[in-house]
Design brief:
Blueprint (H helix, E strand, L loop, with lengths): L10 H19 L7 H8 L7 H10 L2 H9 L5 H22 L9 H21 L3 H34 L5 H12 L3 H9 L3 H12 L1 H14 L8 H18 L5 H4 L9 H5 L20 H12 L5 H20 L5 H18 L8 H20 L2 H8 L4 H29 L2
Helix pairs in contact: 1-7, 1-12, 2-7, 4-6, 4-7, 4-11, 5-6, 6-7, 7-11, 7-12, 8-19, 8-20, 9-16, 10-16, 11-15, 12-15, 12-17, 15-16, 15-17, 17-18, 17-20, 18-20
Length: 427
């Protein structure tokens, strides 16, 4: 068994969490949203349900991330970690059989919950009883990180509910129009139609889409092994992404096809595309304005960027998963393809803000930050309905801009990472 020192300090993410909580409670107190954070927390715990089994399952569901944090971390042996995961899976299966409602169709989720509970119990045990200072320190560090990850999830859910309740008009007509102008068709409608008849594929894509927090938890576990291998911490990246997203979604509110287009999606888009430029309303209920840029894809990109200096099997796994996320965002009707493309410059700016060991006096860092910001602001102008209509009618403008957004983002990111790599190597 190896040993490790705890990873990056958690003070920054904890302070960011307090700021996010203060902001959300402030919005609640002034009446902008009917949902305070504690209400969302208890709703996720299923406390409104009469059946106590719902409370147990709601509580267990919070701890899925613990499984992936511990599995990806050290200093405990692989054999021990797999044994603990196995105990959690057996306990989950036994619970479902005793309760009389085996939910095998959930496949992984319910078993992740049970295994996560066992892992969290193991970390608490290590914090109290471990004779190894390295194991005790690591267990305490991982446990604190897991709690911050869970709190981040509750904060994110609260923000999405706030976005739905705020019910601002959305720019989905523009996103749809720019999609069609960029690619000659609607990629989201095509992807939806490609899998609509295959229930198994749709279920797999839905599970993959919802499992993103588990992938991020695994990155946190990997980070704890050797923090210097990553240009910044996973938790730092998550909170910066969250604050950037909150601002971006107020500038470019887009809900996504299934929320804004209604019955017109995916089969009757032509009249809408040929109609006058307009802001759209969304259906009552859960319709958050969180599509542009796609932060779901952005977080998937974050896992790829942070594991870029890990061993090749790790890099391949996270890259493959990110590609599945890209497909699922379109096939499930959550995003337009331009949402994903705009995520590249936004993530470039976020990396420039978060990267450690590179001075702001570095031209590469400034180019990355302001280049990413500038490209996002250009996208925000293009999403104005009247401008989107004009651009859509000029041949090659939108395809060229999409290519430029991705290519320039990759180029500026690579320049920044070369500087970080040299500084890290002491060159």
């Amino acid at each position: 068994m190896g040993t490790l020192a705890p990873g990056r300090p958690l003070k920054g993410p904890f302070v960011a969490l307090l700021v996010a909580l203060a902001a959300l409670y402030g919005l609640w107190l002034i009446g902008w949203t009917p949902y305070p954070v504690h209400w969302v927390f208890f709703a996720l715990l299923n406390t409104g349900e009469a059946d106590p089994r719902a409370w147990i399952e709601g509580f267990a569901g919070f701890w899925q991330v613990a499984l992936f944090v511990v599995l990806a971390s050290s200093p405990w042996s692989v054999k021990l970690k797999l044994a603990l995961a196995g105990i959690g899976i057996v306990l989950t299966a036994a619970y479902q059989l005793v309760a009389g409602t085996p939910t095998w169709w959930l496949y992984l989720y319910s078993f992740f919950s049970g295994a996560g509970l066992v892992m969290m119990g193991f970390l608490i045990h290590q914090c109290i009883y471990s004779k190894s200072s390295a194991q005790k320190d690591t267990a305490a560090y991982l446990a604190r990180g897991i709690l911050i990850l869970i709190a981040f999830g509750v904060v994110t859910k609260t923000f999405l509910l706030f976005s739905s309740a705020h019910a601002a008009p959305v720019l989905d007509w523009s996103a749809l129009k720019l999609d069609a102008a960029s690619f000659g068709f609607s990629p989201s409608a095509w992807a939806w139609n490609a899998v609509r008849e295959n229930a198994a594929v749709r279920r797999i894509l839905a599970i993959a889409y919802e499992a993103l927090p588990l992938a991020m938890a695994a990155v946190f576990g990997i980070e704890s092994r050797n923090p210097a291998r990553m240009p910044f911490g996973l938790l730092k990246g998550l909170f910066v992404c969250g604050f950037v997203a909150a601002v971006a979604y107020s500038i470019t509110p887009v809900s996504g096809p299934v929320y804004a287009l209604g019955p017109a999606f995916p089969g009757n888009l032509h009249p809408l595309l040929e109609g006058a430029p307009e802001l759209l309303a969304t259906a009552p209920g859960f319709s958050p304005r969180n599509a542009f840029p796609s932060m779901h894809w952005g977080w998937a990109l974050l896992t790829v960027l942070l594991t870029a200096h890990c061993r090749w099997p790790v890099r391949i796994v996270f890259l493959a998963y990110a590609l599945v996320i890209a497909v699922s965002t379109l096939a499930l009707g959550e995003h337009y393809l331009v949402d994903l493309i705009a995520s590249f410059p936004v993530m470039l700016a976020i990396v420039a803000v978060c990267v450690e060991g590179v001075s702001w006096r570095s031209a590469e860092r400034r180019w990355a930050a302001f280049g990413g910001l500038g490209m996002y602001l250009a996208w925000s102008l293009m999403l104005r309905p009247s401008i989107a209509k004009i651009l859509a009618e000029i041949p090659a403008v939108m395809p060229g801009w999409c290519v430029l957004s991705v290519a320039a983002s990759v180029f500026l990111y690579r320049r920044l990472m070369l500087v970080w790599e040299r500084r890290t190597a002491g060159i």
